[in-house]
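[SOLVED] Need 3D model of a two-part complex

Original post:
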Amino acid sequence: MTSQTSTSTLQVCRDCGGGSPIDAHFCPQCTKILSLGRHGDYFSFLGLPRKLNIDSADLEQRFRALSRQFHPDYFYNATPAERRASLERSSYLNDAYRTVRQPIARVEYLLQLEGLAPRSPEEAGKQVPPALLEEVFALNEELDEVRDRRANGAPPEEWKGRLERARVPIEAKRDAHEEQVSALSAQWDALVDRGAPQEDRRPILEALRERVLERNYISNLLAGIERELNA
Amino acid sequence: MSKVVGIDLGTTNSLVAFVKDGVPVVIREPDGNALVPSIVSADDKTIYVGREAQRRLLTDANRTVYSVKRFMGKGLDDIRDEARLFPFRIAGEAGGVVRIGLGEREFTPPEISAFILRELKHRAEAFFADQGEVDSEVDRAVITVPAYFNDAQRTATRDAGRIAGLDVIRIINEPTAASLAYGLDKRHTGLIAVYDLGGGTFDISILRVEEGVFQVLSTNGDTHLGGDDIDLLLTQQVLHDLESGSDSHVASGFSRTPEAVQEIRKAVIQAKWDLSEREETDLIVTSAYRKHITRAEFEGLIRPVVDRTLGPCRQALADAGLEPGQLDEIVLVGGSTRIPLVRRLVGELFGKPPHSELNPDEVVALGAAVQADILVTGNREMLLLDVTPLSLGIETMGGVMSKIILRNSTIPATGSEMFTTFVDNQTAVDIHVLQGERELVADNRSLARFKLRGIPPMPAGMPRVQVQFQIDANGILSVTARELRTDIEQTIEVKPSYGLTDDEVERMLVESFEHAEADFAARLLIDARNEAETVIRATEKSLRSPEFAAIAESELAQGERERIESVLAGLKMVLVSPDREIIQKWTQALNDATRHLAEVMMNRSVHAALSGRNITEM
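Solution:
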């Protein structure tokens, strides 16, 4: 039997007790599918570095290849333990793929991995980010007025146009944010590539965190306008 | 080795297919017919399934059930409006599963579906036996469901399989099954939309096919939209014509019996079929009603139904992040896609003509057979990656749904949520699981209520109970929970909101497994014996009563007493007979023989008002 270490870079095959790298899916000794006891993060599970710019064709390719390796369809005749492992690994793969595929979800996940996740959902949603105070103030005034008019029986054409116009600066803000996020992402990837120390990475992550909080707030504002339009 | 098949359990028709030498084949009757109408009927002795049951719609509509798929996984509250439109009796407890009256018994929708599945199983077994297979038993199946079916509807389908004695090795979605069948012909690569309009349900699925992987990007639909709705529109129009009497083509004196309504429904379906082939037709309901109808008139009438499919198509495209023009192929599935208007509107929406080389009635079963083959043989040529059609979540404060697994997530998928306690030493937490896209709990589908028990007593807010939701490759949910501070696995009691518990399914399986007809007959025999015994007891009591001698003297006819005694003896003799009809005949005879005696005794008794009853009621 191979030595069982408990360092975080190894996982242990429950079938033969052999050790394997943390990002392996099958036991190198007995070739059985590994149960999802100890595992790496979404990036390492997919065999990707912890970077933010991702080639989507490459991601799709990895997703398909891994699906073909451990989808439950291919373990119908296997032992219950292997079937369980296949279900766990496939579920984790699907969760990883879904998260890493979407740019914003990817950044949020990275922040969480690096210990910079918002402390609570309230923090992410409620508190107005200082950079948005002006827009939020103007929008709320506009929304109040629209609601008043509607309550007084104004026809939709009278207030719908105002809502559409109110949306424009918010959407501009969102687009600006997307650019900022992608610039910061590129900086992060460069730091990862050259193995930069933690203290250099931290400011980038914190800047990303601010952008993500603002971005979520902007999304909520836009959703609010959408709701008013459909009300 | 026992056989594994693919089954399309449809609203209107069902069929079964299997893979032979790598090619999926539909199992047919000797006359070439593959479709079994999804209709179940009963008389006192027998359960009829398929075409025979369909014939009985016109003679015994009250005891004939069709479109049962519409009731799968539903509660009585869901279907109250619709229930009026069906000739059969629909009952059940408020907040519980629907029950359907079939003859003298009541069945749940999974049990009715199980009759259909059992018929398909028998057909397949007869076919394999005919082929000279050593082991012709069919004990495993892949069964298809509409992609937009929720957890309760999927679970009900799996239960139906179990009740029919089948190990349901996978539930797959109808549009994706169809795409698998199409994928066999050509090595597809690209984006495909599958538009599936069946008898009772509508699905749209958008897939990307690459390197043999059929990956669903998004799905949408309506589990209450299909050919049935078109039939209903036309039927209501004919009924209106007949009952208002305004139409000169109509003979007067129409009476709306369930059988008459079914006669109209049959004629309407025929006219609908005709209009897929021709520009005009005559809608003929026996000799009572005849109406000329053009395709343009028909299309004007059904346009709102077909339009209802377009919203889900647009939503599915938006969810996949695609424009209609980006799709490479549009595939049509389901009998209702034979309607020219449907083809035209789908073509307009996607900007290219849809295609349907394969029989739209058979393609889903073929795909199910392919999936069954993949599972059993380990054939890795193709892989289906499907999604969950509806978001899964839990009820949070204020009656709001908090989503845990979003719609269109590839399955299998997991999600987890942390719970804690609100009061000190609280040891249980209630969790309400929901499915749907709306904000408020009340607007979504209640799947189940769970009680987490065995939380170690701690101050409020201290326990950290992680509840893990797992949607498997069938799209069916399971839940586990663990208190993280103590690492104690929690027990979960599941109360499905509109489903059967495992025990109920087991009991139904035992009750019906391969003995459906015998079981049914046995129950009716028991009922007949009970009734006979009641009459015997009542007669004997009268004969022993103190007044009897006086009555026999003065009021009974010559030989009446002897007749009663001989019929009584006869009934006692046949009571142990296995022939229910003989028992009923003798029971009736004794009732008749004692009728006069009963009247006399009643007249003499203080309860003079009770006249006209027979002896059993005294």
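Edit: Residues 516-544 of chain B form the longest helix (29 residues).
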